[in-house]
Design brief:
By secondary structure, the chain is an all-alpha fold. Helices cover about 60% and strands about 0% of the residues. It is elongated.
Length: about 70
């Protein structure tokens, strides 16, 4: 039961961290020579899947932890 409590606490802290994370502030274009960045400002394709990738990572961690404990026991 203690392991489940620790897992729930870690998951809760991870969720709070994600919800409180602020996106980085855009940097002003540099003055002088240079092109000042030619990005379009559109989000990268991976940005749409960050939450899904986070959930998949947690599932993998839980799965391999359980698998390792069953092999060890």
């Amino acid at each position: 039961m203690k392991t489940i409590n620790k897992l729930v606490l870690a998951l809760f802290l991870f969720a709070i961290t994600l919800t409180n994370a602020a996106p980085p502030q855009p940097q002003p274009a540099p003055t002088g020579s240079g092109n000042g960045g030619n990005g379009t400002g559109a989000p990268a394709p991976i940005d749409m899947y960050v939450y899904i990738l986070g959930i998949v990572a947690i599932v993998f961690i839980v799965y391999f932890t359980k698998k390792y404990k069953s092999v060890k026991a």
